[in-house]
Design goal:
Elements: H1 7-24, E1 28-33, H2 35-38, H3 49-65, E2 69-74, H4 77-86, E3 93-94, E4 97-98, H5 102-125, E5 131-135, E6 142-146, E7 154-160, H6 163-170, E8 174-178, E9 180-182, E10 188-191, H7 193-203, E11 208-213, E12 231-233, H8 234-242, H9 250-262, E13 267-272, H10 278-284, E14 291-294, H11 305-309
Parallel strand pairs: 1-2, 1-11, 2-8, 5-8, 7-10, 11-13, 12-14
Antiparallel strand pairs: 3-4, 6-7, 9-10, 13-14
Helix pairs in contact: 3-5, 4-5, 7-9, 8-9
Length: 317
């Protein structure tokens, strides 16, 4: 009998998962689903996005089924870039942020709200009437402002009103948030999805922030896949950013993690969202699979409550 159907293996997996299911019951976990994770290609360049999305949706539905209150925030950078190329527009990035004129903003709104948000909501709702799509514009969820005039309509989160999220979560629903928001004058902005996820996690006092992307996590050597760092404190992460080990598109992710933890989120995770069931592997198994960031340093005393309730990679002896 192979491992896929071995009842003893299934029992072992369920037994290992049980403490974590109990630990995260009724807790808020914010999951950012990056466009790079959705825009998955195999070695021959064939689109694997539908398979990746189906796996992601089943993970989210299972998390909700065991009592976790899930908020999904999604990006769509590659998809926006693809449509821009088709329309003959060249993308320009500064520190991982896309320079956004009025036409690019319209493209971003079409892709994020009119395409990706609907795809994610539909994929989750195949498992039941669970997901509700919205954007930062809806019910005053996000008050935005310009990051830098030279970037155009690239926004930053100035404040968050979680009322609409609180209402949806209290009804057992899964908010799926597209990262378009407006300022008080009604001007729309495209906001980096990592930044939105970090801000929402902090405002909701979430247990965890999970960022899904197209690499396994933070590496000490960006070109060496074997240099994955499993565990970092905020101070460790700040050191990596100041020493330019973390650069480019990873910067908004690491800054989002620092922001979330500074506002009371217990832990932040950066994972490869293309791996099947990666959320379940990280949340419900002993060793996890990606990089985890916490406030405190990696050396933790055995009598520390946090270290004794989390996984081996999170400090258990």
């Amino acid at each position: 009998m192979d491992n896929k159907t071995d009842p003893l293996l299934i029992a072992k997996v369920l037994t290992e998962a049980l403490p974590y299911i109990k630990r995260f019951y009724n807790k808020v976990i914010v999951v950012k689903y990056g466009g790079n994770a959705l825009y998955d290609k195999d070695q021959n360049g064939n689109d694997q996005g539908k398979s990746s999305l189906a796996s992601f949706a089943s993970d989210i539905a299972l998390m909700a089924a065991v009592g976790i209150r899930v908020v999904v925030v999604h990006g769509g950078g590659p998809q926006i870039g693809e449509l821009m190329n088709r329309l003959g527009k060249e993308a320009v990035f500064v520190n991982g942020l896309r320079v956004t004129d009025a036409e690019t903003l319209d493209i971003a709104r079409m892709v994020l709200i009119g395409k990706i948000n609907l795809d994610i909501v539909g994929a989750i709702n195949k498992h039941g009437p669970l997901a509700v799509g919205l954007s930062g514009e809806d019910a005053g969820l996000i008050n935005a402002g310009a990051v830098d005039p030279t970037l155009g309509f690239v926004g930053d989160v100035l404040s968050v009103d979680t009322s609409i999220l609180d209402q949806l979560l209290s009804q057992g629903l899964i908010p799926v948030v597209a990262t378009i928001a407006s300022d008080k004058a009604g001007q729309m902005y495209n906001i980096n999805a990592d930044s939105v996820a970090g801000a929402l996690a902090g405002a909701l006092q979430a247990e965890k922030l999970v960022l899904l992307t197209d690499i396994a996590g933070i590496r000490s050597d960006i070109d060496n896949e074997d240099s994955l760092i499993q565990r970092l404190s905020v101070d460790d992460l700040n050191d990596l950013m100041s020493s330019s080990v973390v650069t480019g598109g990873m910067l908004p992710k690491t800054k989002a993690c620092v922001t979330a933890i500074s506002k009371g989120v217990r832990a932040a995770h950066i994972l490869d969202g293309r791996i099947r069931n990666v959320l379940l592997l990280e949340l419900f198994t002993e060793h996890g699979i990606g990089t985890m960031i916490t406030e405190r340093a990696t050396s933790m005393k055995s009598n520390d409550t946090y270290s004794t309730t989390y996984k081996t990679k999170e400090g258990m002896s």
